[in-house]
Amino acid sequence: MIENGTGGANTNLNGLAFERQTDLAHHLANDFNSRYELAEYPIKRENLVKKGAKDSHFLVHDRINNEDIGVVTKQFQFYNVLKQVYGIKNIHHKFWKPDEAFFNFKRRTVFIVEKKYQNGSGSVDEKLFGLNAKRVLYQELFNRQMKEPVIPVEFIAMFNKSWWLDGQTLDKVTGEIKKTQSVDYHDYFDSLRNNGVRIMFDHYEDWYFGLES
Questions:
Q1: Between residues 156 and 178, which one has the greater pLDDT?
Q2: How many domains does the chain have?
Q3: I need a surface site. Which of 9, 19, 101, 137 has the fewest CB within 10 A?
């Protein structure tokens, strides 16, 4: 997750709360506890593309239908799950680190989430256009290594409403709202949507991921 435009030094309680609130595994375990059960998803040794990855990787089990519907993971662990589930390796010069990834077996779809928390204007604004390219790069992993029908990638940009819609700036010491200013990211959001990026604010649209209560 990128915050402000000056790195992690400006992380505050609001940013940490946003991170917890948008943790997909935590969301499933707490808000869908009666429907889904999460258990650690074991990765075979031969599929450890990123051997040092310490990030979570959970198998999602549907209690009602008694079936495994997917895997939730993040960061470098994404590539280990990718190799194990689909036998696919990274073909790009760089390993991207998705903030959240959901391999939905039932829908044959991989959902990638990139989070953008901000409490003031900064260089992150310009970096938004890079999300369009990232979506294409993730899709290329499947396009160039699978026969049809190729697994589709759905790319989600998760923003904090307090800044991106309401223009609230925060005091870095107290974490309290310092002032509210006029912001207009409509052109940015239009560009993302036109390039197939789904936009969400603070909370997941569960239906979009194929999740049922």
A1: 156
A2: 1
A3: 9
pLDDT at 12 (0 to 100): 46
How many residues comprise the chain? 213
Domain housing 204: 2-209
Q: Which residues contact 122 (CB under 8 A, 6 or more apart)?
A: 4, 5, 6
> In whole angstroms, what is the distance from residue 213 CA to residue 183 CA?
35
Grouping H, G, I as helix, E, B as strand and the rest as coil, residue 36 is strand
How do residues 169-209 score in pLDDT, each as one tens digit? 877 777 777 777 778 899 999 999 999 999 999 999 999 99
Nearest to 197 by CA among 117, 139, 124, 123: 139
Beta strand residue intervals within the chain, DSSP E: 2-3, 36-40, 57-62, 67-73, 100-104, 109-117, 153-159, 168-170, 177-180, 197-201
- Would you say the C-alpha torsion 140, 145, 149, 154 has a positive or negative sign? negative
State how far the Cα of 143 lies from the Cα of 52, in Å rounded to an integer: 27
Structure tokens at 92: 């790009």
